[in-house]
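INFO batch 0412 | record 1 of 1 | parsing
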Amino acid sequence: MRVSDKWTDYALIDASDGERLEMWGDVVLIRPDPQIIWQNCKAAPEWDTAHARYIRSSSGGGAWDYRRKLPESWQIGYGGLKFLVKPTGFKHTGIFPEQAVNWDLCSELIKSADRPVNVLNLFAYTGGATLACAQAGASVCHCDAVKGMVDWARTNAKLSGLEEKPIRWIVDDANKFIKREIRRGTRYDGIILDPPSYGRGTNGEMWKIEDSIYSLMSDITELLSDKPLFVVLNSYTTGLSPSVMSYLMRMTVGKRFKITVTSEEIGLPVTQTGLALPCGNTSIALFG
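INFO prediction complete | emitting tokens
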């Protein structure tokens, strides 16, 4: 497992009985995580002093139970980047902290390339990977179907002092955008994909990752430059194991290029136990 262990403004304090106990700057939140099927003694005092806890509803969805006063939003940092954090109605906060291990990887690949690098970030959410790549010197196209997420990402870019960097901000369905980019002849040296397990496009199109990911990966191979650096594919779907993701990468990107593929779980260290909580899988194709 590749563990995102360089955070100073975030910590996964404990994990027990279907919940995460997390520190986001000075704010402590409790959020559900169904894969946490074990129980421990919950010795960490923050279980009792957390600012808010997200409680799922039996009918679907859920709501925050605010136990202490907290701001509507606040900032945390990572490696010179700044992110706006706020609890949303879907338990999320605007950051998937485990992804920092992939931000670091892409940054190093861009810096070591010693040439101009053009990166496409699809399903780009609030821009963690976008900002890391821009900070490393790449030109980045940030694409997400939800305008609010793109606006949030632009706020993060401004907070990070990157608003003047060469970033294209695109609100569009990923599949439609890819096909237009193919027709335009646009090419990228690096592509990052963080697709949801389920979702809807800009016109209500249904997305289910198991049904759509092969076609998507086939299409993105046409967007790669003659000398690409990397393709990074993330998945939070249990059906897409690291082995399945490696096979998929080789049957799409690997049909056009000579690649080395590494697929592993990514995770977060748990302060209370010294163990690491798995938080999804990443498949990485490197070229040459």
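INFO post-check: The two ends are 24 Å apart (CA to CA).
INFO record closed
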